[in-house]
Design a protein that fits this description.
The longest helix has 17 residues. The protein is globular. Helix 2 packs across helix 6 and helix 5 runs antiparallel to helix 6. The protein is built from eight helices and four strands; from the N terminus they run E-H-E-H-H-H-H-H-H-E-E-H. The relative contact order is 0.19. It has a four-stranded mixed β-sheet. The chain is 54% helix and 13% strand. It is an alpha+beta fold and 171 residues long.
Length: 171
């Protein structure tokens, strides 16, 4: 998921493989914000879904984020949802609809999307691609073909992403 509706014109794409019920992914949002601030439109940060089995509501959360993207607020929705990972774990899918309503999105359409499964293929495709490139935990970043695993430790991760982005932008 990218905020843009057209193919990226950015010279560098950062794929952020997130589980939207993962507290580590919430902490990684600071890195995403810093990358956007530093690089602006020279770097396209794309949310890729990798819901982990240990998080009961992560798969539905990924589908909801795709619906939010269809309604024009993908990243704001993902950020709001990540800020409430504990609540999502406790209360489940009603949280997904509440966040949609809070952001002014069509909550009824969210409910319908979760029931009819219109975003299942997108989430499944992301998850399959993640497995194919050996994503095992979240957050994980792919920049210029290099996979950076933040699932174990996020220490120094932003600096490594910036180092690769700087190298790609200089080329």
């Amino acid at each position: 998921m990218s905020d843009s509706t057209t193919p990226s014109a950015s010279p560098v794409t950062v794929e952020a493989w997130f589980d939207l019920q993962c507290p580590d992914c919430f902490r990684a949002l600071d890195d995403v914000r810093a990358l956007r601030e530093k690089y602006g439109d020279r770097v396209d940060v794309q949310l890729r879904h990798f819901p982990l089995e240990k998080h009961k509501h992560a798969y539905a959360a990924a589908q909801a984020a795709e619906e939010a993207a269809d309604q024009g607020k993908g990243w704001p929705y993902a950020e709001a949802l990540l800020a409430r990972t504990a609540e999502l774990g406790e209360r489940g899918e009603p949280v997904l609809l509440e966040i949609a309503a809070e952001l002014g999105l069509d909550a009824e359409e969210f409910d319908t999307a979760l029931i009819d499964g219109r975003h299942l293929l997108t989430v499944d495709a992301d998850q399959a691609e993640g497995k194919a490139i050996k994503v095992t935990g979240t957050p994980t970043y792919v920049v210029g073909g290099e996979r950076l695993d933040g699932g174990q430790s996020q220490d120094g991760l932003r600096a490594r992403v910036e180092e690769i982005a700087d190298r790609l932008l200089a080329a």
